[in-house]
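Repro:
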Amino acid sequence: EVQLVESGGGLVQPGGSLRLSCAASGFTFSTTTMSWVRQAPGKGREWIAAIYSDFREYYANSVKGRFTISRDNAKNTVYLQMDNLKPEDTAVYYCATMEGGIIDSWGQGIQVTVSS
């Protein structure tokens, strides 16, 4: 059974940083593309970043230059380093697996709130 467990969310002031972690189990992590997706209040889900098994990284324009996705295959963990956070980054952030460019498993999500 695929399990994805996010951690590291919380409240941060504008301009601050947070690092999200996602511990994965139940599948071969090292060969799986991993993504982060977020859902802001009252909006649909937005894909924001992906990292492939060969460590190629891709980002949505909304977070490019501020967020960094990374992975540690020894720990079966994917990370999202979020810098220069803005109030519009407030959302529930989900870790997800991808196959053929399609999200196929989701974590339970974690709240990130950017507010002064």
